[in-house]
Structures are given as C-alpha cells and as structure tokens.
Amino acid sequence: MGAPELESCRRQFEQVRLQAQQLTAGLTEDAFNWRPSPDLWSIEECLAHLIIVGHWEVRVLEHAIQDAKARGLTATAPFRYPAVDRLIVRLTQPPVRRKFRAPRRFVPLHGQPVTAVLPTFLHLQSQFLQQAALADGLDLARVKVRTPISKLLRMSLGMMFAQIAAHEQRHLEQARRVREKIPAAP
C-alpha cells in the first residue's frame, strides 16, 4: 500500500483480529455472554456491535471506493484532512474520554454464541483489509463517505478508515475490561 494511513489501518485491522482471538480464547459461552451489570455489555455484545456497525461501514466503503474510481479521484500522499474528521477519530479512539450511546440500530442482541460471533468478526476484518487495498491510489482526503454517526455527516475516506479502526479498538478495550471481571468458575 502506498498511503501511510492505509498501511497504519491495515496493521490495526490485523492487530484487532489477533486481539479478538486472544480475548475470546478459552471462554465458555456463559463467560462470553457474561455482563458485569445489567446496563453494561458482555464481550459478545462488544463484538456483535462491531459486526453490525462494520457491515454497514463495509457497504458505504465499497460504494465510495467504486464511485471514486469511476470518477477518477486519484492522488498520492500526503493528504490533509479536515479538523472535524480528525476530531471524530480522536473522540473515538481509546482511552475513552467520553461515552456515547449506540444508536438503536447498532445495539446487538445478547446471548449469541462465540462460534457465530468470532468467525463473523474475523471475516469482517478481512473485508476492511480488502477495502483498504482497493482504496490505495485514491484521493483519501477528497473522497467522502457517509458515517454511521449521522446521515448528514460525511468523512474523508482516509479518516473513515482511521475512525473504523479506532472504534474497534475502543470496544475491544471495553471487552478486555469485561474479561478481567469475569468471575472464576467454581
């Protein structure tokens, strides 16, 4: 990949994949779905939320990349991104400075098995890697992508990849905190 930001995101998606595997290794279904309290998410819900949002993000990435290629919106790094895009990424990445409530359409079901959630999550990382490879050579600052945050908000393609990686890291950190609190089996 030519653009440094895409290479950084590629590394982050691969790291997220490894972290998810390590995080779920050896967990029983009960532990995978255990909640620290009724109003906090389980490890399963953290990953399932990322799957729901991720499927939406892959679709908008595919559309934006196809459209940009058709329009010939190519350029080489370095890219300059709008301040609002950089702010959104900063607010998303861990450590969490401010909590946000997930929109209803992105709230996961509780109680799904690890054998369904983990493979789907890992496949999603492959889809992000594929989209990053397809985006290489495009003008990552000029190409705009709809965000899951608001129908009105559009981010530059390069910052959208960064925001996706930051969002995943944020919820993996949340899941790690849950894993540390899981009660030991008798």
Task: Describe, in plain words, how this protein is organized in 3D.
- The structure is a single chain.
- The protein is mainly α.
- It has a single domain (4-181), classed as dinb family like domain (Four Helix Bundle (Hemerythrin (Met), subunit A)).
- Helix content is 60%, strand content 3%.
- The chain has helices at residues 4-24, 29-32, 43-71, 83-92, 114-135, 157-181; strands at residues 144-146, 154-156.
- A two-stranded antiparallel sheet has the order 1-2.
- Strand 1 and strand 2 (154-156) form a beta hairpin.
- Helix 1 runs parallel beside helix 6 (157-181) and helix 3 (43-71) runs antiparallel to helix 6.
- It starts with a helix and ends in a 5-residue tail after the last helix.
- The mean pLDDT is 93.
**The CATH homology group name:** dinb family like domain
Q: What would you report as the Rg, rounded to the nearest angstrom?
A: 17 Å
Main β-sheet, spatial strand arrangement: 1-2
Arithmetic mean of pLDDT: 93
Largest β-sheet summary: 2 strands, antiparallel
CATH top level label: Mainly Alpha
> Which strand-content bin applies to the residues?
under 5%
